[in-house]
Amino acid sequence: MITVQEFARRLSTLGAETYTDSDVVDLATDADVRLNSDLGVDAGLAQRLLDHLAPASPVTGPEIVATEWPPPTSSHPAAPPVVFSSPGAVDNNEDPPGRPRSAGRGRPGRRPDSRRSGR
Question: How would you classify residue 61: left for phi > 0, otherwise alpha for psi between -120 and 50, otherwise beta?
Fold first, then answer.
């Protein structure tokens, strides 16, 4: 949990706009959220406030109230999103492989005899 002043400061670091305590109170009023400056801002309240920002915030409620600020960034670039055309679709135009042949002898038992007539 962080103070309203700290929440305003952290919001200010996210973009070009500078936020004050009164801006946070106005945001809470617009979001129809009760804000008690003595209690501070927890992750749930922060998320509800962030949901009413325009443009959308690049962080989540838990991230903005976390002990470590700004949130750590990965040194690896994010993987591109994967899009599937439909569940279970196969991107291969080949026919599915036939039944695998077993190695060695076939089924045990008698071999069919083409010379025999049916009984």
Answer: alpha
3-state secondary structure of 41: strand
Q: Which amino acid is at 20?
A: T
User: Please, are residues 33 and 49 in contact by the beta-carbon 8 Å criterion?
Assistant: yes
Q: 91 by DSSP, 3-state: which? A: coil
Q: Against a cut of 0.85, is the pTM above it?
A: no
- Kindly state the tokens that stand for 41: 């801002």
CA dihedral in degrees (65, 70, 76, 81; nearest 10)? 50
**The two three-digit tokens of residue 3, written as one number:** 């103070």
Residues contacting 58, CB < 8 A, separation 6+: 14
Q: pLDDT tens digit string along 12-49?
A: 998 878 999 999 999 999 989 888 877 889 999 999 99
Residue from 4, 66, 60 nearest 36 by CA:
4
For residue 8 the two structure tokens come to 């305003």
